[in-house]
């Protein structure tokens, strides 16, 4: 009787083990099939020109109607058409009346901008969405998306320095604009610009906000690569006026158009 009980117990254990192995094997095969179907679906969608991804990182170089800059953007896809984006732009804004003078009082002077008071840089950090308006249709097609965002803008004013002749016959002077030195700063004794190294320890911060909207044209052949062009408009408003060029109206509100070249990755 004892041998029979042990035999039954052993048989039960063996049968249970086979059943568990069979169940595990079945679950494993089902998971493989799900992954295979998912991969096939992604391949089919890629062939059909459908943008499908979880995350994307996009970088861009942009040319503006009032300057230039670049940006870095991170996105997470929420639906088949919508992606939440987080974007940082760093740009320099110039007054449209700026003209670079080749040299100053002597032929070897460094080029400079006459009457320039400050270099104006801005950093914008915003949140928004990318909405797919039209898929590519095929690998060689173009996907069209609308992009809109808004958030914080920080303006950075760096004083503009010039090298001028000393009216008293001493060594050349390095000056920025002030009521005291306005005659020298705007006078005929300018030698040239003082270079990029001056004024960084005197930066003033101007807080503000921005909104931006654009159309993005993605012509990349593969979904995992971002290649495209973005064209849009942006508006920034600051809490105080921004002095850039002498004799020109100081603005708080800046509106411009831009075109950007895009590149990045998706996964």
Number of strands: 13
Beta-strand share of residues: over 45%
Give me the secondary-structure category: alpha+beta
Low-confidence residue ranges: none
- Tell me, briefly, the overall form: elongated
How is the main sheet built? Answer: 8 strands, antiparallel, barrel
The gyration radius over C-alpha positions equals: 31 Å
User: In the CATH hierarchy, what is the architecture of the largest domain at level 2?
Assistant: Beta Barrel
Number of H- or I-type helical stretches: 2
Mean pLDDT score = 85
CATH class of the largest domain: Mainly Beta
User: Could you name the CATH topology of the largest domain?
Assistant: Porin
Helical content class: 10-25%
Strand order of the largest sheet: 1-2-3-6-7-11-12-13
Distance between the termini: 64 Å
Helix-strand pattern: HEEEEEEEEEHEEEE
Number of domains: 2
Describe the protein's architecture and organization.
The protein is α+β, with helices and mostly antiparallel strands and 267 residues long. The chain folds into 2 domains: 1-47; 53-266, Porin, CATH 2.40.160. 19% of the residues lie in helices and 49% in strands. The protein is built from 2 helices and 13 strands; from the N terminus they run H-E-E-E-E-E-E-E-E-E-H-E-E-E-E. It has helices at 2-47, 182-185, and strands at 55-64, 67-77, 82-93, 100-101, 112-113, 118-134, 143-159, 161-164, 173-176, 190-193, 204-218, 225-242, 251-266. The strands form 3 sheets. An 8-stranded antiparallel barrel has the order 1-2-3-6-7-11-12-13. Strands 9-8-10 form a 3-stranded antiparallel sheet, with no helix packed on it. Strands 4-5 form a two-stranded antiparallel ribbon. Strand 11 and strand 12 (225-242) form a beta hairpin. It is elongated and about 115 Å long. The protein starts with a helix and ends with a strand.
């Amino acid at each position: 009787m004892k041998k029979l009980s042990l035999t039954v117990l052993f048989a039960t254990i063996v049968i249970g083990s086979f059943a568990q192995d069979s169940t595990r094997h079945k679950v494993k095969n089902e998971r493989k099939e799900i992954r295979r179907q998912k991969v096939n679906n992604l391949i089919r969608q890629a062939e059909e020109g459908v943008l499908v991804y979880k995350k994307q990182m996009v970088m861009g170089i942009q040319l503006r109607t009032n300057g230039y800059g670049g940006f870095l953007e991170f996105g997470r896809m929420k639906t088949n058409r919508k992606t939440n984006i987080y974007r940082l732009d760093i740009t320099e804004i110039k007054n449209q009346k700026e003209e670079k003078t080749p040299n100053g009082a002597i032929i070897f002077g460094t080029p400079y901008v006459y009457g320039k008071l400050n270099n104006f840089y801005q950093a914008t950090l915003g949140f928004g969405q990318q909405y797919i308006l039209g898929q590519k249709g095929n690998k060689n097609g173009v996907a069209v998306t609308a992009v809109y965002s808004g958030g914080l803008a920080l303006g950075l004013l760096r004083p503009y320095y010039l090298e001028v002749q000393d009216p008293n016959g001493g060594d050349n002077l390095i000056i920025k604009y002030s009521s005291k030195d306005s005659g020298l700063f705007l006078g005929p004794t300018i030698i040239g610009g003082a270079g990029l190294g001056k004024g960084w320890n005197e930066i003033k911060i101007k807080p503000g906000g921005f909104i931006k909207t654009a159309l993005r044209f993605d012509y990349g052949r593969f979904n995992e690569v971002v290649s495209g062009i973005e064209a849009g408009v942006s508006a920034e408003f600051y809490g105080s006026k921004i002095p850039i060029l002498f004799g020109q109206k100081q603005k708080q509100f800046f509106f411009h158009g831009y075109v950007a070249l895009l590149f990045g990755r998706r996964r």
